[in-house]
Amino acid sequence: MLTHRLEAIRMSAAAGAEARGLDPSRPLTDADRDFLRKAWREHLVLVVRGVADLSAAAQMDFCRVFGEIGARARPAETRHEPDGAPAEVMYVSNKRENGRVIGSIPDGEMEWHIDQSYMANPAKGTCLYAIEVPREGGDTMFGNLYQAWETLPDDLRRAVEGRKVVNAYGHGGYGIQTRDANDPRAATRSHAHPIVATHPDTGRKLLYVNRLMSLRVEGLPEDESDELLFRLFDHAENPEFRFTHKWKQGDLLLWDNRCTIHARADFDKTQTRHLRRFSIRGDAVT
User: Fold this and answer.
1) Which helix (H) or strand (E) is 55 found in, with range?
2) Are 16 and 140 in contact (CB under 8 A)?
3) Which residues does 178 contact at the CB level (< 8 Å), separation at least 6?
4) pTM higher than 0.90 for the full model?
């Protein structure tokens, strides 16, 4: 894919493309914006390598190519960002200042999830900029939910057609799923979405479930719901549907949160992993 000086180089068969010839620190032309939107629809995940010292303002301008900047979804009491940081920013970081972590989701692995899937209007996209990364580990893995639906066995298609799944915040927290349906956070911060959703821009169907936050299928007994969900999770996480991004300092990465799941690999907690995150405002899942 080529327009003017820009290229989108495919990074895996499932998802992911490197956008070359782009400098996000400079104002973008209309042609640049058109190129980025088309590449994002096609590849689901866009990566710009080696962006030195990208400011928060420039990262926000990049995000605005794809929509409005979204508000932070997590409660105010969980905010750890430094004073003076933009209200919409979240640092995914284990970095410490004055003895306390300055970001969120600091250490360890994270199970497969869709950002804000517990909300009525989950984020359209999520954008991360790598300020500092560990020498090894901390990779982010993405799964293509179009492919998950298109390859779903017929018996599972019949089982999920027309059904909704409840997704809950705090359902396992940010990390490993506990599946505690009695957790009060699961009752206060949850929302049901169609299991078979349609992407608003492409019109393609996708499988909208994720292991970290999908709690139960509406209208099914708990044991049947669990059996169905775990079959769906296992299918959606098939390695054939994956793209794994190995972070380098200066990477700017944007993923389509409507048609991908993502997860994080573990890393050495003695090394710093410090990324700046913005989300793009989304609409209802249909």
Assistant:
1) none
2) no
3) 171, 172
4) yes
* DSSP for residue 210: -
- The whole-angstrom separation of Cα 15 and Cα 204 is 15
Q: What is the pLDDT of residues 69-120, one digit of tens each?
A: 998 765 444 556 665 567 899 999 999 888 788 888 888 889 999 999 999 9
Q: Please name which of 263, 286, 13, 241 lies closest in space to residue 146, comparing C-alpha atoms.
A: 241
Looking at domain 2-108+115-137+243-280, which CATH architecture does it have? 4-Layer Sandwich (3.60)
Give the three-state DSSP class for 49. Answer: coil
Radius of gyration from C-alpha coordinates of the chain: 18
Q: In the chain, what are the domain boundaries?
A: 2-108+115-137+243-280, 144-236
User: Tell me, what amino acid is at 220?
Assistant: L
Alpha helices in 6-152 (DSSP H): 30-43, 56-64, 145-150
**How many other CB atoms sit within 10 Å of the CB of residue 239?**
9
Q: Are 199 and 259 in contact (CB under 8 A)?
A: yes
Residue 81 is given by DSSP the state P
- pLDDT tens-digit readout, 208-252: 999 999 999 999 999 999 999 999 999 999 999 999 999 999 999
